[in-house]
Specification:
Layout (H helix, E strand, L loop, with lengths): L6 E5 L2 H13 L4 E5 L12 E5 L7 H17 L4 E5 L12 H12 L4 E4 L7 E4 L2 E4 L2 E2 L18 H6 L5 E5 L1 H5 L2 H13 L2 E6 L4 H10 L5 E4 L28 E6 L4 H12 L3 E4 L2 H5 L4 H9 L8 E4 L4 H11 L1 H21 L2 E7 L1 H11 L3 E9 L2 E7 L5 E7 L8 H9 L1
Parallel strand pairs: 1-3, 1-4, 2-3, 4-11, 5-10, 5-11, 9-10, 12-14, 12-15, 13-14, 15-18
Antiparallel strand pairs: 2-16, 6-7, 7-8, 16-17, 17-18
Helix pairs in contact: 2-3, 6-7, 10-12, 11-12, 12-13
Length: 422
């Protein structure tokens, strides 16, 4: 590796950070994920650092401030290119935070052009003529239309992003991408000449992302989901290798905590329970009523941990979620459940759990912060977008953690994750 950091990444949530680092590692880049902006310089020699923030649903001004702080730290480590990572479902509100953060980073880097694409074909996220598809349906017809915090009702990314940006947003369509690097570069020059500053890029396959990669080599800033990451390590002369993802072997008790209400996580919870797994559902109304749900859950888990993985979940169907939100308020219900799950995760580790799967972006952020984890080394992939990670908690315990975005992973994800560590 040359001197300094090759790629400096800023992710707007914790699972998204892991997802991005996973794609970099699989393509030969050693990667470390930091939880928040580190106080000092990097402790290890690595090719990429992903700074995980919890800014997807914070007020836009706060998201901008934290992202700029992360940028300054990455620049101080010598990062040659900056990557702003958001969700492959582009979820955000009319006001941000994707647009405001992108424009703030462009200002700080003094650049007049960047790209935007959440495409991640391995996870069924594709962009065609600027429209984002989840599997075979438009984003606006997918489960994301019912997202409790960031419901996505428009699949046209040019329109969604333009509503959040002062700069002009344009499109690099699939025909240009299919024609390869030279055509993409040409289109970038033409868009720049027209005064377009941010271009949404179509991508239908990994081949499209690999064609796009070399065309982005000279950009100071790339903004994307994690998919584009597969085409960037080659720009620094790196190739896929086993060594990039090696972790210590997994020991200790196993547990899953799930706070996501996505369709994928609902299926994963059902599969675990149907296979005879020990599971405890959290009732938000009992938490709101002041019952000590955390202590009750830990007392339930303690005798079971020696027998196999336990699952604690607040996952529920959209109707049930809306009913609770109606009684407690959207933000209050979410924050209250997150705090309870984070306290349970902390308690489970105190009981000897050393292999922990966390489902849900906001939940992962809350758990990692409650555990006092500051840095994670990225290991092997469990399912597209989700690797095992390894680090220390605030008490010095060595922990394997898998931070899973709510929408990611096959139905048997929880079982598969633990099997991989054996």
């Amino acid at each position: 590796m040359g001197s300094g950091l090759l790629l400096g990444c800023i992710a707007d949530d914790f699972t998204g950070a892991t997802d991005l680092a996973n794609n970099l590692v699989r393509n030969g880049m050693r990667a470390v994920q930091t939880i928040g902006v580190p106080a000092g310089p990097l402790e290890v020699n690595t090719d990429a650092v992903v700074v995980a923030l919890k800014t997807r649903t914070t007020p836009a001004a706060e998201a901008v401030q934290q992202s700029l702080e992360a940028l300054r730290w990455l620049q101080a480590q010598g990062a040659r290119q900056i990557y702003f990572k958001y969700c492959s479902t582009f979820d955000s509100t009319t006001h941000g935070n994707i647009g405001p953060v992108t424009e703030a980073l462009m200002d700080a880097l003094g650049t007049d052009f960047t790209v935007a694409t959440p495409a991640f074909p391995d996870n069924q996220r594709t962009v065609f003529k600027g429209y984002l598809f989840v599997g075979d349906v438009l984003l606006s017809e997918s489960g994301m239309r019912d997202h409790p915090l960031t419901p996505m009702t428009d699949a046209n990314l040019v329109r969604v992003l333009q509503a959040q940006c002062k700069r002009r947003v344009g499109l690099i369509d699939y025909r240009t991408v299919g024609a390869g690097e030279a055509a993409i570069r040409q289109r970038i020059q033409a868009l720049r000449a027209e005064g377009v500053a941010i271009a949404v890029v179509d991508a239908l396959s990994n081949d499209d992302l690999l064609r796009l990669g070399p065309a982005l080599k000279d950009l100071k800033l790339v903004t994307a989901g994690s998919g584009v990451a597969i085409g960037l390590p080659a720009n620094f002369g790196l190739r896929a290798s086993e060594g990039a993802s090696r972790l210590p072997s997994g020991l200790g008790a196993r547990a899953v905590v799930a706070g996501s209400c996505s369709q994928a996580t609902n299926r994963q919870v059902r599969t675990f329970i149907e296979a005879g797994g020990a599971a405890m559902a959290l009732d938000p109304l009992r938490i709101a009523a002041g019952q000590d749900v955390v202590a009750q859950t830990l007392a339930w888990a303690k005798p079971l941990l020696a027998k196999g993985p336990v699952l604690v979940y607040s996952t529920a169907e959209p109707g049930a979620v809306k009913s609770v939100q109606g009684r407690l308020g959207v933000e209050q219900a979410g924050a209250m459940v997150e705090r309870a799950i984070a306290a349970i995760a902390r308690g489970l580790v105190d009981l000897g759990v050393r292999q922990l799967v966390v489902a849900g972006g906001e939940t992962s952020g809350a758990c990692v912060q409650a555990l006092g984890v500051r840095q994670l080394q990225i290991g092997p992939q469990i399912d597209p977008g989700v690797p095992w990670c390894w680090g220390r908690d605030g008490a010095g315990h060595h922990l394997h953690m898998a931070l899973k975005s709510g929408n990611f992973g096959g139905d048997d994800f929880f079982g598969k994750a633990f099997a991989l560590l054996q």
